[in-house]
Amino acid sequence: MPAARGGGTGKPGPTLEQVAARAGVGRGTASRVINGSPRVSERTRAAVQAAVAELGYVPNRAARALAAGSMDAIALVVPEQENRLFAEPYFSEILRGVSTELADTDMQLLLTLIRDERGRERFRQYAAAHRVDGVLLVSVHGDDPLPDLLRDIGMPAVISGRRSHDEHVPYVDSDNLLGAQLAVEHLIGRGRRKVATVTGPLDMYAARCRLDGYHEALRAAGRPDGHLVEEGDFTEEGGHRAMRRLLEREPGLDAVFCASDVMAAGARIALREAGREVPDEVALVGFDDSAVARHMDPPLTTVRQPIEEMGRAMVRMLLGLMTGRRERAVRDTAGQHHLVLPTELVRRRSS
Amino acid sequence: MPAARGGGTGKPGPTLEQVAARAGVGRGTASRVINGSPRVSERTRAAVQAAVAELGYVPNRAARALAAGSMDAIALVVPEQENRLFAEPYFSEILRGVSTELADTDMQLLLTLIRDERGRERFRQYAAAHRVDGVLLVSVHGDDPLPDLLRDIGMPAVISGRRSHDEHVPYVDSDNLLGAQLAVEHLIGRGRRKVATVTGPLDMYAARCRLDGYHEALRAAGRPDGHLVEEGDFTEEGGHRAMRRLLEREPGLDAVFCASDVMAAGARIALREAGREVPDEVALVGFDDSAVARHMDPPLTTVRQPIEEMGRAMVRMLLGLMTGRRERAVRDTAGQHHLVLPTELVRRRSS
DNA sequence: GAAAGCAGTGGGAGCGCTCCCATTCGTGCG
DNA sequence: CGCACGAATGGGAGCGCTCCCACTGCTTTC
């Protein structure tokens, strides 16, 4: 389904040829100046730059891409999950970071929302056809084949969050385990006796890590009471249901660690319905430090991830991979491409 | 600052030429099939399509763009305001709509965050160089020169929200005035006597409309008490401060209409600080129906805008403008390019 | 003092596509 | 039966750029 074609969109603007003519140099030389090659005399450089300024020259991206074989563009791929939620603040933050880091580059950012198998296949073709030079993958599920697929076709890619402990694809992650541990230690430190947890979908590694952190903190405190576990799905509704199940199983629980703020919001509602006071009867801690955390009543204690910084780090890593591939071919610098950023506890009144 | 250049990014994939050879036809014919031209015999079409499938051919976008002069891409431009907030849920929703509507197209979506004068200039050049075929402008301030600038260089553009009542640039807006009116009527209908409002920044037309709706509702109820107005800036902090000022001016107020949910969240905090119960002593209504509205305690009555639908409508309008320009040159169909979508009141417990 | 370097430069050869001008048929008409 | 005309097709001419080879004057080296 071709969408818009046909003869040209408007006045084309000056070409390299015209710039070169105006500067009184050859096309090659003008190109060299524009691309910052060192092999140009100072005089010539100045002349070309003047011509560029006078003519308001802007390189034609399509021509450049065609000739050079690279697109000067990276794709940010967002699988829009079935549940369509995809924690919104997370996304915005990542985007901000990515965009910030890209601002000093003349890379373009292509946004691709994949919502079904058709979309996935479309993107696969895109990548295979090298329509972008690199890919940032956000919110990847454990069984997502896309990362390996990209590796197979030699497309540089960085994912946010590992899919498993020994993820081999370059990634930027945050320290989910330690974050969860901090949260639960905090709860224990406040004298809570029966600490439950609402996990994320356990086919996601991040969710698994947060659960491990929960167990780890309990174990470290010499308290093997880590059986109060219910699985949620990172949605408010899921948190709500999981909390209800917990209350049924153990009416006497006095603390809950939720693996996301949104689920904590759901849990909060369930607690209110059950007439439990927060934090007096039940302490509540979330994860993400998203906007809802601040707006809950009482404001939610939570674990903060440096999401914007993760976005920036992903771009830096991807850019490195991209130039790296050119400069040192396949020299095995393997590694350096795994980054885990620290998380921190943000104390508010819910605990 | 060239970022990534150098020799090609990888194995190039089959070209049109190869497809044509395989199908035993000429390059031109193959092109015709791929672009759905009717001037091809059924037999030939089938042969080419088979070759495409066998070879896994995907057209090279750069080459196409270069030859055809159009980029098959539109830019979504988001000025990232000074206050850096840019109501996040709004953005995500728009994005979802845009992306959905674009899914059936082979248009690319380029995301451009403009954060300073430099970025703005960079984008201006982009547009001038026709690096995209159309532009979607989100969250435009009243004094933003970008829309007119784009018109001057002949770049199709659609903005979300008018900048003034007689906006001449194509736009998709929601009925802010009626929405605000509904909200305030609702408040009056619930027996509230002293209805205040926290407005958005009044250099934004949308904020102005919501204020007008407030006044209109009051006037219609025969109550010219529309003096309890304080200006906010669409941030939580701003809402908080504005609410404090209102309470100072009129401790006896019993209802507040905030021009955004986020400001309502700020106002909620100020009310809590002042010991006012919501909704018993003071009823609160917001605008946007964003996520915070549902998570507030009590959940916030608010005015819903069909944001995702606005995103979709913007794309449809832009696509229309883009093909329109080609097909009927400058025939003055002027109009049809202003769309105002309805808003509705969502009642929750805060009022 | 001649050979050999090298910085600086010009411009040809494509990149893969679309556009469009032929060219080749087949058919309808005078 | 010959001519004209349209449908179907082939392929040349670029689109604006980057890459790279060839070329010019110098300066360096033995």
CATH architecture type of the largest domain in chain A: 3-Layer(aba) Sandwich
CATH topology of the largest domain in chain A: Rossmann fold
Oligomer: homodimer
What's the CATH class label of the largest domain in chain A?
Alpha Beta
CATH superfamily of the largest domain in chain A: Response regulator
What is the N-to-C succession of helices and strands of chain A?
Answer: HHHHEHEHEHEEHEHEHEHEHEHEE
SS summary, helix count of chain A: 13
Beta-strand proportion of chain A: 5-15%
Uncertain stretches of 5 or more adjacent residues of chain A: 1-10, 327-335
Mean pLDDT of chain A comes to 87
Count of the domains of chain A: 3
Helix content of chain A: 40-55%
Net shape of chain A = elongated
Protein name (chains A, B): LacI family transcriptional regulator
InterPro entries (chains A, B): HTH_LacI (IPR000843), LacI/GalR-like_sensor (IPR046335), Lambda_DNA-bd_dom_sf (IPR010982), Peripla_BP_I (IPR028082)
GO molecular function, one term (chains A, B): DNA-binding transcription factor activity
Organism (chains A, B): Streptomyces albus
Give an overview of the whole structure.
2 copies of one chain form a homodimer. Chain A is α/β, with parallel strands linked by helices and 351 residues long. The first copy, chain A, has 3 domains: 53 residues, 434 Repressor (Amino-terminal Domain), CATH 1.10.260.40; 135 residues, Rossmann fold (3-Layer(aba) Sandwich); 129 residues, Response regulator (Rossmann fold). The first copy, chain A, has 13 helices and 12 strands. In chain A, the strands form 3 sheets. A 6-stranded parallel β-sheet of chain A has the order 2-1-3-4-5-11, sandwiched between helices. In chain A, helix 11 links the parallel strand 8 and strand 9. In chain A, helix 1 crosses helix 2 and helix 1 crosses helix 3. The longest helix of chain A has 21 residues. In chain A, 51% of the residues are buried. Chains A and B meet through helix 4, helix 5, strand 2, helix 6 and helix 12 of A and helix 4, helix 5, strand 2, helix 6 and helix 12 of B. Chain B binds a DNA duplex (30 and 30 nucleotides) through helix 1, helix 2 and helix 4. Chains A, B: This is LacI family transcriptional regulator. Chains A, B: InterPro entries: HTH_LacI, LacI/GalR-like_sensor, Lambda_DNA-bd_dom_sf, Peripla_BP_I. Chains A, B: GO terms for molecular function: DNA-binding transcription factor activity; transcription cis-regulatory region binding. Chains A, B: Pfam families: LacI, Peripla_BP_3.
